[in-house]
Here is the input.
Amino acid sequence: MPRPFRLPRRAALGLLAAPALIPAFGRAQGLKKVSFTLPWVPEGANLIAFVAKANNYWAEEGLDVEISRGTGSTVAAQAIGAGRFDYGCAAASAGLQQAAKGVPVVQIAAMSYDVMMGMAVLADGPVKAPKDIEGRKLASTSSSGDYPFWAPFAAAAGIDAGKVQHSSVDNNVRQRLLVEKQVEGVTGFATTFLPWFAAQNVAVRTFLYSRYGIVFYGNTVMTQKERAEKDPRTTQAMVTGLMKAQKFTLLNPEEALRIFIRAVPEAALSRTAQDQARIGLGLARLGATAEKAIGKPVGSFDPGDAAAMVENTMKYLAAAGDARPDPAAAFTNAFLGGVTMTAEEWAKAQQQAAEFAALVA
Here is the structure.
């Protein structure tokens, strides 16, 4: 059993704690090499990591960060908890699922306040409200992180799941089935399927699970509890660099996208790839500019949301033998480093992200 997480007094762990006053590394000390994993391939939703590196925000904090692509949030959270990467980002639900299994992972900054799980249907199709999916075909990917939440969404939305012809398909064909009208709906993460649909000029209607009380943040920054305890300076440096990049991206989305396209060659291969990155980034910005974030250090966790996410994890994701994580140990604001935005900056960021709200209305 992993030993309880305890930070030194100056970096006391706690959701209500102010950011720890830990000095940043200076350039004169040289850059410390650390590894960072993405939850998936480079895309708009994790673009800020490339901004942090290209704009030297990590270097300013004394870090030389190697970014690796991932193969899914669950695998990323497992790898971070096992120490195969020093830091990384993944969906909050994946981090909590691993924490419930005893994997010593702690979430140290929020990148998005809505993971945007949902059901998509064709805008001009027969499904106008969630309950309309009854008696029709729905395609999902059973290995996707959203899959366990279909049942609670159905219950909350008044859908009789027994009346839905629900099948599991490969994620590479899921969206195509909807376009070809072989199914009337698909489930997944909107940050993944909406860029694909939009790039194909396919209009869809999306029903987000978060609108039905299923609260989960999107990507969060994670590390091992022991690393955070023993090396709080590097941990804060990592978070500070990322949150500087988050602020830059929220206020300068077009330049952030150009940085990403320069850093990731495959994103520049076609107009479709660039459109997908732009829309993915837009949805990520939309999730990062939630009202609950305003007036707080960039990347803050809300204690009420932390408790709700733990509750949803234990209710819908936990397996036999899993133990309920303590929200105050699973999430911390202790390393945020004081990156803030003025009310005017938040308003600008929200205004610039507003065009993407129609995709998830």
